[in-house]
Amino acid sequence: MTEKTSFSDLIGKISVRVEKSDDFTQDFIRELVGIIETGLRSSGSVSISGFGKFELRWMDERNGTHPQTGDDITIPAQNKVEFKPYKSLREYVNRPYARMKPQILEDTPEGETEPGTRPAAIPPLPVYEGEEPDDEERDDPVEDDPGDDPFQLEDPVYTDEAEIPGKKEKDEAKDTPPFPFFIEEQDEEDEAETLEDLLIERPSPVKSDVDELVLDFDESRLAEQVQKEGSYKWSYIAAAIVGLLIVLAVYYFLSDQRDSEINLPEVPEREMEPERLIEENDLNGIEETELIAIIIEDGQNLWNLALNYFGDPYLWPWIYYLNSDKVENPNLVYTGTDLTIPIPSDVENLLEFELEQIAFGYVSVYQWYREHNHEEARYYLWAAGIYNSSVFYRVEDRVDPEDLRFARNR
Amino acid sequence: MTYTELIDQLSEELNLSKTETKYLVDELVSELTEQLGQGYSFTIPDLGTFKTKIKDVQKVYNPHHEKFMLIPPKRVVEFHPGKNLKENLKHINPQ
Q1: Which of B49, B50, B68, B71 to mutate to test the interface with A (most CBs of A within 10 A)?
Q2: How far is CA A86 from the centre of its chain?
Q3: How would you classify the pairing of strands A4-5 and B41-44?
Q4: Mind listing the pLDDT tens digit for each residue in B15-65?
Q5: I want to staple A85 with a disulfide (CB 3.0 to 4.6 A). Which of A52, A102, A228, A333 is the partner?
Q6: How many domains is chain B partitioned into structurally?
């Protein structure tokens, strides 16, 4: 995710690593930065083994537009500092995605009609097989495969192959589908694993109760509904008060007309206004996230929907949670399904109840994985706690105690 | 400037042996790599900010096979030079 490690934390971590004082590390980094700068100044490039290469690149004078005013401006020639990560860093960072392979699109009408054109003209259009509608009817390994896949992504890296029963089967299944490209939600999983280095899997399959899960979500929906109804009630009350005030105003107006006091009706009006304002604030502040309805198109999945709508792909369980009646397998959404997508007002600062929904989304993903006996399920439970830690108390009785302990202590 | 030159200079500045300096730099690099690998971003004062970014799926045309291809998503490292560094080096002309 996009969390930031502060410089002092970084210093602390490095100090522990090299068993030096924080001051020493800070001096050391300052010197290093100084040398990088002089190196760039004198030779135009500095390479650090195992990390990357800092380089100066000369940019010729060029035309551009001012980002704010939109005016045409001339950008003067200048040096640009670039960093090119070396292979080891690139591979380490890309590890969660390393197993995905490019996929050749066999039937691309655009490709045939304009064989000579360069790709620049064609907008990127992600397509994933697992979600294409024809898979729905076929009842073949393709459909199951996406569920298994993420674990394959990591297995060879972290776990002993012998430990995983059915590993061979999975590998075969993986070879059978014609498409080498897998669904992206899995990366969530990988991400979780990268966090735990040298992990050894300990299978602890306990079936969770589906009915309970369903019940739970009905409950929480019910709670939401009640809240909503509550707010509607408030609006009725407010409307009633406003109506009453108007009636009073009219009454006063009529009764005092003889005295030709026209000011009176304005008084109650002024009283009305603040009341309305409060009303609106309440509605905005409590539990309304704007929802929009979309229809799944070819190539969309929850991961890239979350990326497109929230800018944070890790919020995809939120969509899963809000559409749990339509989407069963979190890895598989069919083209043409209507989904409800929340549009939070501020993704950076999600509201309490939004975080709660995301947390419950993770819990339901956890439960799906647990049901299908994926050992990685517990990472989803752990992720739920990141969004709302109180969620653990609320699902305590429905999750595997071992997983809960893992999620809490991680 | 090569890695060895960097180590030489740094060991001089810090009055440390080259082995010691190399060890320190390597440890620093592995910590930074780990941070980036876990998806964290960080800023080193006077140098700049390092972060990772997920590149979305791309559809590209392969002229050799005359076919379109999907390039899977990728997580890449991004570096934004700090203001001081950028300004200091803007107009110099390295040989």
Answers
A1: B68
A2: 28
A3: parallel
A4: 999 999 999 999 999 999 999 988 899 999 999 999 999 888 888 888 887
A5: A52
A6: 2
C-alpha closest to that of B63 among A127, A117, A107, A101? A117
| Of residues B27, B54, B94, nearest to A41 (C-beta) | B94
* Dist. CA B87–CA B19, nearest whole Å: 33
Q: Do B62 and B86 share a domain, yes or no?
A: yes
Say yes or no: B66 and B78 in one domain: yes
pLDDT per residue as tens digits for the range A134-168: 433 444 443 344 444 434 443 333 334 344 444 34
Q: Which residues of B touch A117 (CB under 8 A)?
A: 61
Cross-strand bridge partners of residue A91 = none
Which residue segment(s) compose the domain that B87 sits in? 41-95
Amino acid A58 reads W
Neighboring chain A residues of B25 at a CB cutoff of 8 Å: 32, 48
Residues 49-78 of B with CB under 8 A from A: 50-52, 54, 56-62, 65-77
pLDDT for the residue A162: 40
CB atoms within 10 A of CB A358: 30
pLDDT at residue A155, rounded to an integer: 38
Using CB atoms, which residue from A49, A80, A93 is nearest to B76? A93
Burial zone of A51 (CB within 10 Å; 0-12 exposed, 13-18 middle, 19+ buried): buried
Chain-chain contact of B27 with A39 (C-beta, under 8 angstroms): no
Q: Does B15 touch chain A (CB under 8 A)?
A: no
- B33 and B51 co-located in one domain: no
Structure tokens at B48: 């700049």
Residues 6+ apart with CB under 8 A from A191: A1, A96, A314, B39
Q: Are residues B51 and B94 in the same domain?
A: yes
Residue contact B1–A39, C-beta within 8 A: yes
B81 and B46, same structural domain?
yes
Given a cut of 50, the residues of chain A with pLDDT beneath it are 108-218, 260-286
Over chain B, what HEC string results?
CCHHHHHHHHHHHHCCCHHHHHHHHHHHHHHHHHHHHCCCEEEECCCEEEEEEEECCEEEEECCCCEEEEECCEEEEEEEECHHHHHHHCCCCCC
Report chain A residues whose CB lies below 8 A from the CB of B69: 102-105
Write out chain A residues lying below 8 Å of B75, CB-based: 93-94, 96-97
